[in-house]
Inverse folding.
């Protein structure tokens, strides 16, 4: 039996514009093959999402595989949406940690093997999808998967508890800090946040409308150069094209830098670490502690979930020693504060 999976890289409706415009293309064609696809591609196709060669897909039987990274690609949707045993809406900036996390979780709880579904969009867009009943449209395809767990910054999780979408308590698990992502070798010689106001440095920056990281970045910009620097980066330069605002910064910022469309962008340091570990032509510039901002990641169970036991198991797992050890591979640190 042949199964056709076709995905567009353009998000319509209540979701986002997916970042799938890459530097090369790859087509993977196999029949009923659960293993990684065979890829026919030019050497630079690895620059295009999804970057992980199928490892972030939890489906056991893949059927007919068709992926063209610069044209047909569903980078931030993972697994089989048909009757999952656990559905996770995950703030996108640790999409790369999800494959090892899911693998370890399923080893601990084999009954969930191949039955997890997760999305890694920006938290604000995931909220829009929750309010739409879990329904989402990507290109020409529409489907519905209601979440069991929502995972984002602690502040965002608390807000959704207050708004009645999630159940208390919010469960914090790891922390993260900011960095300046640049092209490998840092050809523009960016040294600090203050350099982001230079006319010769084109920026890719998260959109404050729905990407929570933008608030932390603005805070750090103010620490480095006052409200004037934040105004220039996030308003003045946007108006004259010096700052490009992303829809999905964890995909678009590194991709635009690799394509030469941007020279730098502020991201979570874990995202730069992943790109470097993947061998992509990406580097980073450290932001000193007195200018940096720390994010606390948290999760909570969605009201009305049909998979409460699985949801609680996931929240317990990601803050366990085993779960935190996986996060630490990408520079995250254990949350040491009190529970929320």
């Amino acid at each position: 039996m042949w199964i056709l999976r076709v995905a567009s890289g353009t998000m319509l409706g209540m979701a986002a514009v997916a970042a799938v415009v890459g530097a090369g293309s790859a087509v993977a064609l196999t029949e009923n093959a659960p293993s990684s696809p065979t890829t026919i591609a030019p050497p630079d196709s690895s620059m295009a999402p999804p970057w992980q060669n199928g490892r972030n897909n939890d489906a056991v039987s893949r059927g007919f595989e068709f992926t063209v990274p610069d044209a047909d690609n569903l980078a931030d949707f993972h697994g089989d949406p048909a009757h999952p045993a656990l559905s996770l809406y995950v703030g996108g900036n640790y999409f790369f940690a999800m494959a090892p996390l899911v693998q370890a979780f399923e080893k601990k709880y084999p009954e969930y093997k191949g039955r997890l579904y997760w999305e890694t969009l920006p938290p604000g867009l995931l909220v829009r999808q929750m309010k739409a009943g879990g329904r989402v449209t990507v290109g020409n395809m529409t489907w519905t998967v209601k979440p069991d767990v929502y995972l984002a910054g602690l502040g965002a999780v608390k807000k959704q508890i207050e708004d009645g979408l999630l159940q208390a308590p919010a469960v914090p698990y790891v922390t993260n800090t900011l960095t300046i992502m640049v092209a490998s070798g840092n050809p523009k010689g960016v040294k600090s946040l203050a350099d982001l106001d230079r006319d010769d440095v084109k920026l890719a920056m998260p959109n404050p409308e729905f990407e929570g990281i933008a608030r932390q970045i603005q805070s750090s910009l103010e620490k480095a150069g006052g409200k004037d620097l934040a105004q220039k980066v996030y308003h003045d330069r946007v108006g004259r094209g010096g700052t490009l605002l992303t829809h999905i910064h964890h995909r678009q910022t590194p991709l635009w830098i690799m394509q030469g469309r941007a020279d730098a962008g502020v991201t979570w340091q874990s995202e730069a670490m992943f790109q470097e570990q993947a061998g992509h032509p990406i580097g980073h510039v450290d932001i000193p502690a007195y200018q940096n901002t720390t994010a606390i990641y948290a999760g909570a169970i969605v009201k009305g979930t049909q998979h409460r036991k699985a949801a609680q198991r996931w929240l317990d797992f990601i803050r366990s020693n085993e779960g935190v050890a996986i996060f630490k591979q990408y520079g995250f640190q254990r949350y040491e504060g009190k529970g929320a």
